[in-house]
Amino acid sequence: CFFAFSARLEDLRVKLENEGLVNISYVVVNHQGAYSQRKFHLLKESVSDYITVYQQDEQQADVWTTLNGSKDDFLIYDRCGRLVYHLGLPYSFLSFQYVEESIKIAYCESKCGNCSYTGPGIDGVCENITRSADEKLAELELKPSGHHSHHHHGQGQGHRHRHHH
């Protein structure tokens, strides 16, 4: 149901903006099928003006095929337009933290050194995000548990697909 998705995406957008992650573009790509085409206006009305809804033309090449993705995927690009993460199901469910964490990493990483697209104050925002993540990790490690945890940290997990172009 795209209404639940739209509400969760808007909640995520607002949360990230409140944490100082600004100037992020959000684009929802509507499926090419006839049913999705008929429901386009409902999808567009279900998101805020801060989220763009792109309607594919039936005659054009399918965006998802071109991007090697599926309709439920999240493609996360850095400020230079490079694909950083491609998250598919189930990692694209907004009820999990994968999309949020991937956006934060793409926002804060400086893979290429100094960047002319980086605005003032980004270092402070990213330090706060890192500090908050470190505090959560320390809190988890301090809590004794009666069972083995399968919580993973860092890079290289199956849900984080890094693409460098």
TrEMBL record:
Sequence segments annotated as region (Disordered): 144-165
Organism: Rostratula benghalensis
A GO molecular-function annotation: selenium binding
Residue ranges, compositional bias (Basic residues): 145-165
GO cellular component labels: extracellular region
GN (gene name): Selenop
InterPro entries, per database record: Selenoprotein-P_N, SeP
UniProt entry keywords in alphabetical sequence: Glycoprotein, Secreted, Selenocysteine, Signal
Localization of this protein: Secreted
UniProt record, GO biological process: selenium compound metabolic process
Name listed for the protein in its UniProt record: SEPP1 protein
Pfam families per the UniProt record, alphabetical: SelP_N
Limits of the Selenoprotein P N-terminal domain: 4-165
Keyword presence, Signal: yes
